[in-house]
């Protein structure tokens, strides 16, 4: 169904618990959330296609702040108040930016450091290729490192990927064009706003996060929490949906 500018699925009922909004990663779509929706067992859940993905229309700009505004239109259209935002990969960046601007109960970040770090360095070094006809070689290299083969075959089928060049360049524009120090300061401001709004933050990853990143994040958000769920690659919400649903439940208390 269409919610504002975005396409999405609304399931479950308003049972008094905070609603849950699910935001997929770059090039994928809302189909990836099927196992987690089932694990959430009936509570109000909205799984959205981000702009340019799935059935949602493309845009000229995919800057996180603008995508967060579009997301707020969908949240409002769905009649949701102060949702728990579950974001995978780049969807987690959008979730954090959203929670800095609009009321949110919590952000559950699935396998996405909010600082680009070594990934940003790699992406900037590959920028000429990304902007050329061989851009898919960069995406395919990244996809090969996501651990898709760690998922059961039937769950790999949920990962419908559409790596259009304008999506990659648009969603990665900040990393490619904003100096790392400036981007760090932007993230600090966003996280401070998130904390001021009393939004909880929980990071789930396939392996322990870099200690330097963990120290940085907790220096900004002292109550941030971390959980490691190995064995499902970049997609713990697909491989271990019950474990992720338990974390969502703790963020709803």
How is this structure best described in words?
- This is AB hydrolase-1 domain-containing protein.
- Pfam families: Abhydrolase_6.
- InterPro entries: AB_hydrolase_1, AB_hydrolase_fold, AB_hydrolase_sf.
- It is built from 13 helices and eight strands.
- Helices cover 44% and strands 14% of the residues.
- The model has no long low-confidence stretch (mean pLDDT 96).
- The chain has helices at residues 34-39, 64-77, 90-101, 117-125, 127-130, 136-144, 153-156, 165-171, 173-177, 180-196, 211-220, 236-239, 241-251, and strands spanning 2-3, 6-11, 20-23, 45-48, 84-88, 106-110, 200-205, 225-228.
- The chain has an eight-stranded mixed beta sheet with strand order 1-2-4-3-5-6-7-8, sandwiched between helices.
- By secondary structure, the protein is an alpha/beta fold.
- It has one domain (2-251): 3-Layer(aba) Sandwich (Rossmann fold).
- The protein is globular.
- A hairpin with a 2-residue loop joins strand 1 and strand 2 (6-11).
Q: Nutshell version of this structure?
A:
Residues 20-246 form the AB hydrolase-1 domain. This protein is α/β, with parallel strands linked by helices.
């Amino acid at each position: 169904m269409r919610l504002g500018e975005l396409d999405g699925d609304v399931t479950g009922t308003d049972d008094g618990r905070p609603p849950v909004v699910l935001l997929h990663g770059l090039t994928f779509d809302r189909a990836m959330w099927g196992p987690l929706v089932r694990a959430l067992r009936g509570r109000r859940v909205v799984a959205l296609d981000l702009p340019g993905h799935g059935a949602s229309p493309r845009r000229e700009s995919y800057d996180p702040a603008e995508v967060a505004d579009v997301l707020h239109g969908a949240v409002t259209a769905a009649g949701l108040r102060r949702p728990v935002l579950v974001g995978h990969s780049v969807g987690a960046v959008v979730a954090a930016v959203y929670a800095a601007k609009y009321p949110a109960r919590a952000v559950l970040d699935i396998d996405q450091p909010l600082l680009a770090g070594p990934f940003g360095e790699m992406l900037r070094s590959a920028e000429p290729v990304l902007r050329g006809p061989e851009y898919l070689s960069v995406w395919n290299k990244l996809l090969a490192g996501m651990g898709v083969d760690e998922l059961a075959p039937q769950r790999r089928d949920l990962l419908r990927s559409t790596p259009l060049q304008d999506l990659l360049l648009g969603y990665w524009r900040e990393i490619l064009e904003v100096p790392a120090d400036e981007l760090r300061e932007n993230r600090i401001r966003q996280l401070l706003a998130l904390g001021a709004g009393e939004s909880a933050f929980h990071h789930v990853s396939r392996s322990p996060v870099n200690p330097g990143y963990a120290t940085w994040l907790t220096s900004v958000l002292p109550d941030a929490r971390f959980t490691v769920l190995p064995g499902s690659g970049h997609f713990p919400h697909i491989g271990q949906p019950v474990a992720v649903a338990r974390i969502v439940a703790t963020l709803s208390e």
